[in-house]
């Protein structure tokens, strides 16, 4: 009875004070509502798992690091973001994983119309080394989450074709319904297949591609490109044919937000800024580069670009975005610090630059020529076109391999 009375007296004195402090304490961790600034979609807030030797596992008091808001509450299993920089692990060739360091430096060029092939080109000699029969409407070439396999999305053949990056040859073919594009969740637990034809975003097994859950929304027609928030809790999808954007919870696998763009919009590639605060979206229909903040689903600014901007690729040092202007035959160099185009790289004689990526050393931007049948390479220091390789057909989602980084989010080499 003495102990019970003491506990009651302590509770009467202390609990009211704790209740008064509760709003302030919860305010430090962000909202648990659908607002992505705190804890989007109601997903449980959780930090990264403790590593061996970490104070949390040894009993010592762990210091609380200061984390910028976009990086708070990372999903369980996602590798920790370093130095407040989404792409910190992709800055130099020395950051290549040991498993890819000896992969041959090839370009993988899928042909979206005509011959059912993917052309493999040596980056150094700029010669075609082989032609792979990957299937009709081979759309993009995508590195797996663990970087051990490359996948070709052969849409009309209803299959994803696996390639061995060590040999550049086909190893397996997986039956998949109309794969247009392919992504992986930041924890590596799921593949995300963009089934553009059937208006579906399909969560699937990342190794077999067996469907787990399909997400569709009446506001989204033609889902095709995406990128993930800095904490991995949600991703932004571009819906080309409805001129809209969709926000989807990674953990709950459901739609948490919709944004309808003005008439004429055709959003294409989506890419997150290095600081995790801004999504950049190429609006091919209105010739704009849109800015969407990480904590609000709305357009807060735009930059006028030449005709039909399509692909977006961060420079190796994280200072610029290279935007392919498909029907203008140019590349726009966008400064992230100045938020404006600071240079333009034309293709002498014209062309149709589309999709691709940066070489591991950051010195060459490689892009497919969607309607010209060429692969183009620019020197990123001078802006001069240094390579023009004939492949024929309609080259589409070109992959530059290998790449520095710890894991792949998919598409044509979005590594973090």
From TrEMBL:
Bias type Low complexity, positions: 29-65
Signal peptide (UniProt feature, chain positions): 1-26
A Pfam entry, by short name: YNCE
Keywords for the protein's UniProt record, in alphabetical order: DNA-binding, Signal
Region (Disordered): 29-99
Regions that span the bilayer: none
GO molecular function: DNA binding
Gene3D superfamilies, per database record: YVTN repeat-like/Quinoprotein amine dehydrogenase
Start-end of Pro residues biased regions: 66-77
Segments forming domain YNCE-like beta-propeller: 316-399
Entry keyword DNA-binding: yes
PANTHER family recorded: DIHYDRO-HEME D1 DEHYDROGENASE, PROTEIN NIRF
Protein name: DNA-binding beta-propeller fold protein YncE
């Amino acid at each position: 009875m003495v102990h019970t009375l003491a506990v009651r007296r302590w509770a009467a004195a202390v609990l009211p004070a704790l209740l008064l402090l509760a709003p302030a304490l919860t305010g430090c961790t962000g909202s648990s509502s659908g607002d992505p600034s705190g804890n989007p979609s109601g997903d449980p807030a959780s930090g990264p798992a403790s590593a061996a030797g970490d104070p949390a596992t040894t009993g010592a008091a762990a210091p609380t690091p200061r984390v910028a808001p976009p990086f708070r509450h990372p999903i369980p299993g996602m590798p920790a973001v370093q130095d407040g920089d989404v792409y910190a692990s992709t800055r130099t060739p020395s950051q290549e994983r040991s498993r890819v360091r000896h992969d041959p430096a090839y370009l993988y060029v899928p042909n979206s119309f005509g011959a059912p092939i993917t052309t493999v080109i040596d980056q150094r000699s700029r010669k075609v080394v082989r032609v792979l029969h990957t299937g009709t409407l081979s759309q993009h070439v995508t590195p797996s989450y663990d970087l051990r396999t490359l996948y070709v999305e052969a849409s009309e053949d209803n299959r994803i074709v696996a390639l061995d990056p060590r040999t550049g040859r086909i190893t397996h073919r997986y039956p998949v319904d109309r794969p247009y594009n392919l992504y992986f969740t930041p924890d590596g637990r799921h593949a995300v297949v963009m089934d553009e034809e059937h208006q579906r975003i399909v969560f699937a097994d990342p190794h077999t591609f067996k469907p787990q859950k399909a997400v569709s929304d009446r506001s989204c027609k033609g889902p095709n490109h995406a990128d993930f928030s800095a904490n991995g809790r949600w991703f932004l999808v571009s819906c080309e044919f409805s001129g809209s954007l969709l926000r989807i919870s990674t953990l709950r696998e459901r739609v948490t937000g919709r944004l309808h763009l003005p008439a004429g919009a055709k959003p294409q590639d989506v890419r997150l800024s290095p600081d995790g605060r801004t999504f950049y979206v190429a609006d091919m229909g209105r010739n704009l580069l849109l800015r969407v903040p990480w904590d609000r689903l709305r357009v807060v600014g735009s930059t006028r670009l030449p005709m039909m901007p399509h692909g977006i690729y961060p420079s190796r040092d994280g200072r610029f975005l290279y935007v392919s202007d498909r029907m203008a035959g140019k590349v726009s160099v966008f400064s992230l610090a100045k938020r404006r185009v600071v240079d333009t790289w034309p293709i002498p004689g014209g062309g149709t630059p589309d999709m691709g990526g940066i070489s591991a050393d950051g010195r060459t931007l490689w892009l497919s020529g969607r309607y010209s049948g060429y692969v183009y390479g620019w020197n990123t220091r001078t802006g001069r076109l240094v390579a023009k390789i004939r492949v024929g057909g309609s080259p589409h989602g070109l992959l530059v391999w290998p790449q520095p980084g710890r894991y792949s989010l998919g598409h044509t080499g979005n590594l973090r």
